[in-house]
Give the backbone structure.
Amino acid sequence: MDEKTTGPGAHSHDAGCFFCTTAIPMLENIWSDATRNHFRNSRVEFLKGLRSLIDERIDHLAHHEEQKGTKVTVE
């Protein structure tokens, strides 16, 4: 099977492809719009959680740097 990827998880839509002809249509018909929205929102919240962890780590590293040099008062 000749697969062409354009990004993570992407593949061409071949007539004999199991995912294109069976799995994806089955999942689209099984889940309601409310269920799809719930899972989409959960992915968004998960990514927001990761962003929060990264932001906290950046703040920690930025505020705990050692001072280099000394402060001198200029008259």
Observations:
- Residues 1-5 have pLDDT under 50 and may be disordered.
- The two ends are 78 Å apart (CA to CA).
- Helices lie at 18-30, 33-63.
- The first helix runs from residue 18 to 30.
